[in-house]
Amino acid sequence: MKKAILMLAVAAMAVLTGCTSIDIGKKFNAVPVGETGRTPAAHISVKMTGCYLFGVIPLFCGSVGSAGKTAMFSDTLTTDNGVFLLTRAIRSEGGVRAHDIMTTRNGVFFFPLLSFETLNVSGTGSK
């Protein structure tokens, strides 16, 4: 019985904590982007979440491979990975230039065992 409860808790943690999501907005009302007035392709927001043991050992983190996936025991919540996913999404929407990239990272630490962290990266791509 204890093993079943532990397995259920681990599965729930994986589903609830480690995930990557990419949201895309394309309605600009014909407003140009950037100082040069370029045509916007999309505004993109990347969110990666993760769960860490003792605040340093990654248990479940959002995958860099694709949205909606989880990476186990791999620390993928880095600015490099967030910007990579952002620029890949900008290119997939036909953009060739990125504007106003913003990155934030925050988390909650449940002393002494677990911490839950979130990395948010957003920016606008133009054609």
Q: Ranges with pLDDT <50 over ≥5 residues?
A: none
Largest sheet: 6 strands, antiparallel
Individual helix count: 2
Shape by Cα distribution: elongated
Q: Report the end-to-end length measured between terminal Cα atoms.
A: 57 Å
- Strand content range: 35-45%
Average pLDDT, to the nearest integer? 85
Considering DSSP H and I runs of 4 or more, what fraction of the residues is helical?
Answer: 10-25%
Please write the string of helix (H) and strand (E) elements: HEEEEHEE
Q: What would you report as the Rg, rounded to the nearest angstrom?
A: 17 Å
Structural class: alpha+beta
Number of strands: 6
What secondary-structure arrangement, pairings included, does this model have?
Elements: H1 2-17, E1 19-25, E2 40-53, E3 57-62, E4 70-72, H2 79-92, E5 97-110, E6 114-126
Antiparallel strand pairs: 1-2, 2-3, 2-6, 3-4, 5-6
Task: Describe what you observe in this structure.
By secondary structure, this protein is an alpha+beta fold. Helix content is 24%, strand content 45%. The protein has two helices and six strands. Strands 1, 2, 3, 4, 5 and 6 form a six-stranded antiparallel sheet that branches. Strand 3 and strand 4 form a beta hairpin. It is elongated, with a radius of gyration of 17 Å. The termini are far apart. The relative contact order is 0.23. The mean pLDDT is 85.
